[in-house]
Amino acid sequence: MTWALSMADEALEALSDTAKRAGIGKSAFTRAKRELATEGFLHEWRRQGDGGRWSTEQMVSNVPLTATEADQARDGRPSGQSPATGEPKGRAVGRLPKKTVENNPNPPSPGVAGRPDPAQDERPDEGREGDQPSSTPAPASTATAPSTVPAPLVERGGQALTAVSHGEPRLRLSGQDVRVLAPLAGDWLQRGATVADICEALTQWLPDQVHSPAGLVRDRLTRKRPIAPTFAEQRAADRQAAGAQSRPRVADMRECGGDHDQPRLFLPVDGETLCPSCRCDEAEASVAGAVEAALRGGAAIRGLLRARTAGVAA
To answer: Are 184 and 221 contacting, i.e. CB atoms less than 8 angstroms apart?
Structure first.
């Protein structure tokens, strides 16, 4: 955001191009863009021109704005919001606008371009248009496959879809369907969901008859996709995982209480105070002492028997 705000007002550059010049990767850019939009520092407007060409306007501000305030700032009207600190120094928003134009004559899919209605997920899926295509179901190849999902997660996503296909007769998927839909399931795993979450989302509230299993699976994987964790949440999880992994190996070790020239550390199993070497020496010493005591006792008994035998003979 700081890089974008430092550019001239008349500069027209997409945020993705700015991220490339700043050395920001795709995954980090996606998380940062989502967080800026959530906090109100980034607003976007997508519209289609007369020739079917789509364009996107992006606006970055140095203070959070509501949707209404962003519309007013885009139209040149004052937003009525004061800067966060200091005295007023002109307009409170950043440069406007940033446009990118794509040669796309067709409008984007409603399930992909916008977020789903939360109220729809609160109702059972019976009779819904997305789950029961009435006439010509869309092929599974039209599913939007995230390009940033690692290959291991895509493979696990395919395994989850295969398990659902084998366990639910109404959701029989071909091998091609599984390969096409696996990136969508892998995106669930990347967002923190489990294989059990995917199976539950696909098999819950199924209609009695499914005309297009691939279409139903694609629709649910897209519409019910969990919200990805914010950048701050991911950083906190990374720090927690790094803290657990950075625990020193000697933290659970103990210094041996035996006689050593230098301190010796060992990992106790059940509260031992001596290292394995000292315990072996102690056991050998105990056995040797027991053997010696047994020999002395045997010699004493033999002497006593000889003395008694000599007294009887006399």
So the answer is: yes
**pTM (2 decimals)?**
0.35
Could you tell me if 160 and 198 are in contact, meaning their C-beta atoms sit under 8 angstroms apart? yes
How would DSSP label each residue in 266-296? E--SSS-SS-HHHHHHHHHHHHHHHHHHHHH
pLDDT the model gives residue 248: 66
DSSP state of 52: S
Kindly list the distances between the CA atom of residue 68 and the CA atoms of 59, 72, 77, in Å, as whole numbers in the listed order: 13, 6, 11
Contact at 8 Å (CB) between 148 and 27? yes
The two beta strands, 42-48 and 54-60, are antiparallel
Distance, in Å, from the CA atom of 291 to the CA atom of 295, rounded to the nearest integer, reads: 6
Which parts of the chain are beta strand (E)? 42-48, 54-60, 98-102, 254-255, 265-266
pLDDT of residue 161: 95
Question: How confident is the model at residue 107, as a pLDDT?
Answer: 46
pLDDT at position 188 over 50: yes
- Taking the mean position of all CA atoms in its chain, how far away is CA 168? 27
Listed in sequence order, the residues at least 6 apart from 253 whose beta carbon sits closer than 8 Å to its beta carbon are: 265, 266, 267, 268
Rg value, the chain, Cα: 36
Sequence-separated (6 or more) residues with CB below 8 Å from residue 45: 56, 57, 74
